[in-house]
Design a protein that fits this description.
single chain, three-stranded antiparallel β-sheet, 11 helices, alpha/beta, seven-stranded mixed β-sheet
Length: 342
């Protein structure tokens, strides 16, 4: 991804220094800053605090963190504990567990193997997302109006993204897609991150309130919905950012195609359905407070809710496969029944 005429990935590492670098997504879109993480503990905390977020980016970061742990101390007790710490950061995103397991197994052979595997997982993620864009582009017609929810662009992955990758491919091929960007409460990843990405890529878009989608669908102004996924069960049930289920139900009601874009690494072969998913419950501070820059550019946190109020903040909901028209993957556009064969 190009930012101010320079190419970036969301997360990367320096093998010689055993450091991980990532874009601080908590500061976007107001400030673009790279942070340096010197240990697996630092990287795990960055995942937990959502400095990095999104299925693929979480997975790559977790893989790098696991490799950092092996470099710090390859003793089995140490790396086993490190794996548990990393995996406790975001319990819903299956890419995290995919990455820690692969790097852990490689690290049991040698530390160098762990490092190579971590980088391989990051490269695999970027390559898969590029293919998602190519396959998804075939579904998009000229000047189509596409609704997204949350951020599943390149910031959510190592590069290219999942839900936005077809949009970028369509834009590049001259189809002039238009994107309705759900603000995506409570953290506003749509209004902040998706909008920032689309603006950087000169794709036409408008931010809408989360509860405005039905209005635009009812008025025939949305042609397609594409979202990402944090975990997909074998039957196609999909966990994604809270509010995705509402969009899927609405799309079904108004006969609008609803697609999930994700690499096949997001499929959880251990989960027969979404009933087994663990849904992360996050701090209600994300719901009750907003942060942003004041007139001097200093980041401030302000309370948005009635003083004394408490909140409930589930991070994800589960969309049953019956609402999903297809899965845009790095293996092509698949139906729910195809996932079991994978």
């Amino acid at each position: 991804m190009r930012v101010s005429n320079q190419e970036y990935r969301t997360v990367w590492n320096n093998v010689e220094l055993n450091k991980v670098y990532m874009i601080d997504q908590t500061l976007l879109p107001f400030k673009f800053e790279i942070i340096e993480l010197n240990s697996f503990e630092d990287t795990a905390k960055a995942i937990k605090d959502m400095i990095v977020r999104g299925a693929g980016a979480i997975g790559a970061s977790a893989g790098y963190a696991m490799a950092q742990a092996f470099v710090q101390n390859s003793d089995l007790t140490f790396v086993t504990k490190a794996k548990q710490i990393i995996e406790s950061t975001r319990p819903t995103a299956v890419n995290l567990f995919y990455a820690t397991s692969k790097v852990f197994e490689a690290g049991l052979i040698s530390v160098d193997n762990a490092i190579v595997m971590a980088r391989s997982i990051a490269d695999e993620d970027a390559d898969s997302c590029k293919l998602i864009g190519e396959y998804g582009n075939d579904l998009i017609k000229n000047k189509q109006r596409i609704l997204t929810h949350c951020n599943a662009g390149w910031l959510a992955f190592v590069d290219y993204g999942s839900a936005l990758s077809p949009v970028y491919a369509a834009h590049k091929s001259g189809k002039e897609p238009f994107v309705y960007v759900d603000e995506t409460r409570p953290r506003g990843q749509g209004a902040r991150l998706t909008a920032w990405e689309l603006n950087e890529n000169k794709v036409e878009y408008r931010i809408i309130a989360d509860n405005a989608a039905a209005f635009y669908m009812a008025n025939g102004q949305i042609d397609m919905v594409i979202t990402g996924a944090d975990r997909i069960a074998r039957n196609g049930d999909t966990a994604n950012k809270i509010g995705t289920l509402e969009k899927a139900i609405l799309a079904k009601e108004f006969d609008i195609p609803f697609y999930v874009a994700a690499p096949i690494s997001t499929i959880d072969k251990e989960s027969p359905s979404g009933d087994s998913f663990i849904i992360e419950e996050r701090s209600d501070e994300e719901l009750l407070y907003h942060d942003g820059p004041d007139e001097k550019g200093i980041m401030r946190k302000i309370r948005m809710a009635s003083p004394g109020s408490k909140g409930l903040n589930p991070a994800f909901d589960v969309t049953p496969h019956k609402y999903i028209n297809g899965f845009i993957t790095n293996k092509g556009v698949l139906q729910a029944n195809d996932l079991r064969n994978l």
